[in-house]
């Protein structure tokens, strides 16, 4: 039985007929079978290699002097992958979609080829040869346009076609996967380095721990082409999982290779909690509030900050938890009597109407709404915006898109019932404003990532008649 039959690929399969494999590399150089020398993999043999995520198979669906196609098929072992990852989670679709796991396998299986070494044909590694790369299912967060922006500047002709969710149901639209074909004259080592770096960049996900050594890998694999790439910053951010310190280090090294300077990004040591309080107080000053509600005041950190501002003449903190109010009382007891007398505490819930909370200049819900079960959000809207009806309402909540930069998983706190994207927060806030007679404007709190936005999002509602 020949190698093609063993792998389930027809012996007459050509360059374009490879729907069952994750990656094929084809050439029409003369003789085309010299591709085997460059890859250090003999065309007459099927070989298997153990990787961290499963088993990689290399075989040749077609190998003659006119056309030679090498295929890399990665069979992922979800059980082994789950055991190797924190939390034990596995990834269901990685057997079928190219991404970071395929890039790791490619770097392992074709390590020698990527060094540009070829003992049997020493003239070949430095020669650009006609290549065609086919990836039938590439995970891509950015669509066909992103694939064009990443590969075209490197000399590739790009044919990126979205894969439909269901070919039998065209109305369902397209999936996040691409059928990607790259053609061009390239040195094979360069082509492999392009794929090694850009596959996880397309996916914008790495399914393994990203540490400081990833900076060295990026500079080593991209040093010949990444410094002058127009998407250098985006590639660096995505490859390094948006870890800001690593990204700064990589960009500095790439800039040095390019002979340019990168202005170092200012580093802020201001804690995010303090930055949120600063933003809330600035918004209260801007709207001229004097009587302020802190709804869901917790242990009283914001109350203490508000009490330091003499412009706020009456401050009321509420919480549903008696323990939180006790902690707030202890914190406030440290204040001078003339300051403490402007602050009072009240046992109350943001989901039940409390007539004693009506008529204030402003109400603050700082990191509160994400602790409310989603079905109870209409009750919060009714209690705060329709019953208490302050002139202004200031809301802050986490931006879930930023979580990877903080090392967070789905949510930042185990008591968070949800966390919103920027679009979801805007949609909720716009709806509340329209239904309750308020206008709303938005702000950002904390360091802003160009792709993921700020860690905290802020909305300031103002009652129209106010």
The CATH class designation of the largest domain is Alpha Beta
Tell me the span between the first and last alpha carbons. 82 Å
CATH superfamily of the largest domain: Hen1, N-terminal domain
How many independent structural domains?
A: 3
Largest sheet: 7 strands, antiparallel
The CATH topology name of the largest domain reads c-terminal autoproteolytic domain of nucleoporin nup98
What does this protein look like?
The chain is an alpha/beta fold. The chain is 34% helix and 23% strand. The protein has helices at 3-6, 35-39, 78-84, 100-109, 111-114, 143-151, 188-203, 213-222, 232-239, 244-258, 272-287, 301-307, 322-332, 337-340, 377-388, 403-406, 422-436; strands spanning 23-27, 47-51, 54-63, 68-76, 129-139, 157-164, 174-186, 291-295, 314-319, 343-347, 362-366, 392-398, 438-445, 456-463. Strands 2-3-4-1-5-7-6 form a seven-stranded antiparallel beta sheet. Strands 10-9-8-11-12-14-13 form a seven-stranded mixed beta sheet, with helices on both faces. Helix 4 (100-109) runs antiparallel to helix 7 (188-203). The model is unreliable at 1-21, 86-95 and 261-269 (pLDDT under 50).
């Amino acid at each position: 039985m020949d190698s093609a039959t063993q792998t389930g690929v027809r012996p007459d399969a050509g360059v374009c007929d490879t729907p069952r494999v994750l990656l094929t590399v084809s050439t029409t150089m003369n003789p085309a079978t010299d591709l085997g020398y460059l890859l250090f993999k003999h065309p007459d043999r099927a070989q298997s290699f153990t990787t961290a995520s499963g088993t990689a198979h290399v075989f040749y669906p077609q190998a003659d002097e006119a056309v030679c196609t090498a295929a890399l098929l990665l069979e992922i072992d979800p059980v082994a992958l789950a055991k190797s990852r924190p939390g034990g989670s596995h990834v269901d679709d990685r057997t079928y979609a190219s991404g970071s796991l395929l890039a790791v396998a490619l770097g392992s299986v074709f390590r020698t080829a990527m060094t540009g070494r070829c003992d049997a044909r020493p003239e070949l590694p430095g020669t650009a040869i006609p290549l065609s790369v086919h990836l039938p299912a590439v995970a891509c967060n950015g669509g066909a346009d992103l694939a064009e922006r990443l590969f075209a500047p490197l000399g590739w002709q790009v044919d990126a076609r979205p894969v439909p969710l269901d070919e039998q149901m065209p109305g369902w639209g397209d999936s996040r996967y691409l059928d990607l074909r790259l053609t061009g004259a390239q040195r094979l080592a360069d082509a492999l380095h392009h794929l090694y770096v850009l596959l996880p960049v397309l996916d914008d996900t790495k399914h393994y721990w990203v540490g400081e050594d990833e900076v060295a890998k990026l500079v080593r694999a991209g040093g010949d082409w990444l410094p002058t790439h127009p998407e250098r910053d985006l590639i660096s951010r995505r490859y390094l999982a948006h870890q800001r310190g690593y990204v700064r280090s990589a960009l500095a090294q790439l800039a040095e290779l390019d002979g340019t300077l990168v202005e170092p990004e200012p580093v802020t040591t201001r804690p995010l909690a303090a930055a949120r309080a600063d933003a809330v107080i600035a918004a209260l000053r801007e709207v001229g509030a004097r009587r302020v509600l802190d709804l869901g005041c917790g242990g009283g950190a914001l109350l203490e900050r508000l009490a330091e501002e003499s412009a706020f003449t009456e401050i009321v903190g509420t919480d549903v938890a008696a323990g939180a109010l006790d902690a707030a009382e202890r914190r406030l007891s440290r204040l001078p009597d003339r300051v403490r007398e402007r602050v009072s505490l009240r046992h109350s819930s943001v989901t039940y109407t409390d007539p004693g909370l009506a008529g204030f200049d402003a109400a603050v819900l700082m990191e509160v709404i994400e602790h409310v079960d989603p079905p109870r959000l209409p009750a919060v809207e009714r209690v705060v915006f329709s019953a208490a009806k302050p002139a202004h309402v200031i809301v802050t909540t986490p931006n879930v898109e930023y979580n990877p930069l903080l090392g967070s998983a789905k949510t930042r706190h185990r008591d968070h019932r949800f966390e919103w994207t920027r679009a979801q927060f805007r949609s909720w806030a716009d709806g509340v404003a329209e239904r309750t007679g308020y206008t709303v404007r938005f702000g950002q709190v904390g360091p802003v990532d160009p792709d993921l936005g700020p860690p905290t999002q802020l909305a300031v509602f103002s009652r129209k008649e106010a």
